[in-house]
Design a protein that fits this description.
Number of helices: 8
Number of domains: 2
CATH architecture of the largest domain: Up-down Bundle
Largest sheet: none
CATH class of the largest domain: Mainly Alpha
Strand content: under 5%
Number of strands: 0
Length: 167
C-alpha cells in the first residue's frame, strides 16, 4: 500500500513540476509550485521526518509562495512573460534531457558507501528529529546560524532603505 501511495504522490509531484514550467499564466505556475511543495512535504512524512514536513509547508508553501504570488499579481506579468520566453523551450527541453540522462548514468554506476554518521535511526526514534536539529543548530552550528541571522537583518535594512528612496 505504501508503494502505491508513493508512486501516486510521485506522479502528482512530477506533473505539478511540469505544470510549473509549462503554465502560460504565472499565477497558475505559482499555484502548481505550491502543490509541488505540498507533495514534497508528504515525502518527508513518508520518510518519518514530520518536523521537516511542517517546515516545508510553513516556510515554503506558506510564506515564500505567498510572497511570490503577491509579486506576480502586483507586477501583472501575464502577457509580457508569455511573449518573451517561448523561444527557449526547445533548448531547455534538450538541456533537461541531457541532465536527466547524465543523472541516470551516474545513479546506475554509483555505489552506496555504507558510511554512517553519529546520528543513527535508533537515536532519531528515541530522541526525535526536532530535539536533534535543535541541539545541532544551537551547539555545533551556532556561529553560522548567527551569521545567517545578521545577513538577513542586513538584507531587510537594505530593502527598507531602497524602498524609502523611491517614496
Amino acid at each position: 500500500m505504501e508503494t502505491i501511495f508513493f508512486y501516486l504522490v510521485a506522479l502528482v509531484t512530477v506533473v505539478s513540476g511540469y505544470l510549473v514550467v509549462r503554465c502560460q499564466s504565472p499565477v497558475n505556475s505559482g499555484l502548481a509550485l505550491v502543490n509541488t511543495f505540498f507533495c514534497l512535504a508528504i515525502f518527508y512524512v513518508m520518510l518519518y521526518a514530520p518536523f521537516m514536513a511542517a517546515i516545508q509547508v510553513i516556510v515554503y508553501a506558506g510564506a515564500i509562495m505567498v510572497l511570490i504570488l503577491f509579486v506576480i499579481m502586483l507586477l501583472n506579468l501575464g502577457t509580457e512573460a508569455r511573449k518573451r520566453y517561448t523561444h527557449g523551450v526547445v533548448w531547455a527541453a534538450i538541456a533537461s534531457l541531457l541532465v536527466l540522462l547524465n543523472l541516470v548514468f551516474f545513479v546506475k554506476r554509483g555505489r552506496v558507501t555504507g558510511a554512517e554518521g553519529d546520528i543513527t535511526s535508533s537515536l532519531i526514534m528515541t530522541e526525535g528529529h526536532t530535539e536533534l536539529i535543535g541541539k545541532a543548530l544551537y551547539t555545533d552550528f551556532l556561529l553560522p546560524f548567527e551569521i545567517a541571522s545578521v545577513l538577513l537583518l542586513v538584507a531587510i535594512v537594505g530593502a527598507v532603505v531602497l524602498a524609502k528612496k523611491d517614496v
